Every structure is written in structure tokens, then in C-alpha cells.
Amino acid sequence: MTTLTTTPDGSAARRSAPPASPAPAGRRPRQGGTVLAVPALVWYLVFMVGPLLAIFVIAALHWPGMLQPVSFAGLDNVRTVLDDPVFWDAVRNTAVQLAVAVPVMIVCAFMLGYYVAQRPPGHRVVRYLLFIPGLISTPAKAMVFYAALSPDGLLNGGLESVGLGSLSDAWLASPSTALACLIALDIWAGIGFTAVLFAARLGSVPDELGEAAQLDGAGHWRTMWSVHFPVVRDYVGVVTMLQFLWTLFGSAQHVLLLTQGGPGTSSTTLSFLVYQKAFIAADLGYSQTVGVLLFLAGLVGLLTIRRVFRQNY
To answer: How far is Cα of residue 137 from the mean position of the Cα atoms in its chain?
Structure first.
């Protein structure tokens, strides 16, 4: 590179600038973000990976209580679990719960989120109302459903008032309806929050897409499923994963507060069985063996959902 310099007599002269020293080969800019991630990484390893490994260790032990002596059980806990009819009842109930609650919740929440994303009159108020189930604590939700579904509750009272008293039942105490009541609670508790998530994502879709579809003669139903759904398909997969995990692992609290797994085992789920065996029956080896199987079921479910939506998350 050359530069112009002025000599003492006032004339200009060209002068070659010294070449810039090349950067050392293979040297990259310093990555300062790694240091900032160390506390979170340590926290994750200690409180997430640690308990996960402990589940597999305890599942191989015979441990009849926190203060009782521990012995190695090997695969005996697995054989005990697989030979227990209560476990298979819990598997059936969990499968029914997931097969009903997750699809109904996702489909209804997407439709509700699409409606809110169209900004109808009062859509801001609707968003706030949809958040109400998420603002209520789990015991309060259980009390609401208990007040509605108890033998002298609101549902039976409503049936009596319209002359359908023959349809009244002890909904939470009937083997044929206890699980359905829990599924209804799962859907009610999750559909509003999920709809708000969908509405936020659909709000970023350009309005021109929907307007062009409607100009071509498509109604709201076809626009919703043929235009907007493919655009947010990856996000639908993410929300489906979250609802799958919340339903699979979080159903124990609803079962504990409303039915205690009964009548019999008609509403016992896998997550409640983990709690029951650990804290009521004091059989930690059995409990964590079910926990391992529950973890594997969750992993398989996530991979299946990811493949169905065919996206990389």
C-alpha cells in the first residue's frame, strides 16, 4: 500500500507503507461465552444428570425404605414390575390418557389460537382469560373439579335441574368415569396456555398468506389447516412434545388429589405409581424401576413426535 507524504521543499512523494503483519494461522477469536455458561452447565449436571443416573442405580437395588438396609437386586425389580398386574393397569391408563388428552388439546388449542390470532373484537381480553387455568394452583384446580364432579356437585345438580337426574353419577368414584375426569382436567388445564402459545406464533405469520388464500376462495377452515398449519408445523411439534411430557410425568398430582388411583386401579397412571411405591409402599427399587421405564417411554414418545412432524428441533 502506498501513501502520499510531503517533503521539506513542499513537493509530494509516494511512500510505501509497511505491510500489515498477517494473523497467525489457525488462530480464532476468543469465545468468552463459554465461561458464562459454566455455572448453568454445572447446575444442570448436578441437579439433572445426577438424579437421572441415580434412578438407574436405585432401580438395581432392593431398598425397602429410606432407613432400611440396601442390597443389590439386579434384574429382580424388573421381573417384579413386569409380573405385577397393577403396572399393566397403569400402562393402559397412561396410554389412554396420552392418546386422548394430547391430540384433543393440541387440535383444540391450535384452532383457538388461530381464532385469537385473527384479532377478533376483544381478543386481548380473550388472551387473558385463556391464561386463567395457568394462574390457578394445582390444588385449586383439583378443588374446582371436585366441586363439580362430587355426588352432590354442580354437574349432578345441573342434570337434576333439567330432568336428567338418571344420568347423575359419582364421577370420581366410578371405575368407568374416574380416568375420563382426570383426562378432562388435563385438557382444561393445558388448552388455554397452549392456545396462547399458538396465537403468539401465528401472529408472526404474514397476513398476506391468509388474504391470498381467501381471495382464491378458501374459507377460514381451509386457510387454517392448509396455509397456517404448514407454516408453523415445526412449532406445533415443539408444543406437542411439551404437552406430551407434561401429561406423561405430571398426571400424578391430579391423581393424588382427586382419586388416589382408584377405584381399584382404574385411574392409576405410571407417574402416580412411581409416587405410590416410593412414598406409600416404601419400595424404592420398584418405584425407580417404573421410573426408568417411564423415562424410556418418554424418550420413545419424543422421538416419535419428532419423526411425525419431520423437523429438527
So the answer is: 17
Q: CA-CA distance, 189 to 79, in Å (whole number)? A: 36
- Predicted TM-score (pTM) of this structure: 0.83
Residue 89: φ, ψ to 5°: -65, -40
Residue linked to cell 417411564: 294
Strand partners, 6: 12
Cell of 73: 437386586
Which of 183, 188, 185, 184 is closest to 109 using CA atoms? 188
**Residue 286 exposed, middle or buried by CB count within 10 Å (0-12, 13-18, 19+):** buried
Question: How does pLDDT run across 20-76, given as a tens digit for each residue?
Answer: 555 555 555 555 567 888 888 888 888 888 888 889 999 998 888 777 888 888 889
CA distance 105 to 240: 9
| Amino acid at position 30, single letter | R
Give CA–CA dist 38/13, Å, rounded. 57
Residue type, 281: A
